[in-house]
Amino acid sequence: MSQLSPLHSSGTFKLGDRTVHRLGYGAMRLAGPGVFGPPADRAAALAVLREAVALGVDHIDTSDFYGPHVTNQLIREALHPYRDGLVIVTKVGARRGDDASWLLASSAEALTSAVHDNLRNLGLDVLDVVNFRVMFDTHQPAEGSIEAPLTALAELQQRGLVRHIGLSNVTPAQIAEGRRLCEIVCVQNHYNIAHRHDDALIDDLARDGIAYVPYFPLGGFTPLQSSTLSAVAARVGATPMQAALAWLLRRAPNLLLIPGTSSVAHLRENLAAAALELPDDALNELDTLAHGDA
Fold this sequence. Notes:
Layout: E1 12-15, E2 18-21, E3 25-26, H1 42-54, E4 59-61, H2 70-79, E5 87-92, E6 94-96, E7 102-104, H3 108-122, E8 127-133, H4 147-158, E9 162-168, H5 172-181, E10 184-188, H6 199-207, E11 211-212, H7 227-235, H8 240-251, H9 264-272, H10 280-287
Parallel strand pairs: 3-4, 4-5, 5-8, 8-9, 9-10, 10-11
Antiparallel strand pairs: 1-2, 6-7
Helix pairs in contact: 1-2, 3-4, 7-8
């Protein structure tokens, strides 16, 4: 890791049998508009990935349905052969339609195909962590049994193609069901400083040593905007997005952050949030954003 990297300040947490820095990188934004098609600037996308690893990032989140295939192929081109200690986490359970739609793909056959697609496009013999993305509702968790697809994924794990299994877009009941079927090493749900429906779940998972990986930690396709966030950030000499990431790092020890960007400058800005110290009054003020200020 670069001696100039602030990532050591983020702390570490277990992800399966590996320990990673709590601030990583999400590759979704490297694909084209709507996470579909190639990037506008392929060289810039490759540069972001190489800079992330050069700065010490050891947790990259991706999926073969980003593009589709685009982000995984970029990761392979930029980083293969992979540095020791780099954990690449991918997702299965969905596929993309020709019209860029997000479609359910959770049959045993579809999951097997998706795992092999991820292996091939990433240039790996085994996937470090595979999250099963539940698609009962595309936009938010919705109840329903995940036994059949998770059993199929566990069989792929037993065959040595998958090292660890996680869950995405899930309810507490689905997490409990999943943990009865196999070890669950992480949960990836929508969560940020203003969207805090999973507060109780995060604390429960922390007690059990399970990582929680918030997607859209900075608001996703509609970035967080808040006068309170901007004011606090200005007071501590940071950008609003850095303050939002620093708040997440303080929220719970099991939060692993994967902010995404297609810009080297924004990547450096995001990673610098690891070293940002938020005083207690700033944390308390930012807590109010859950009540509708963002």
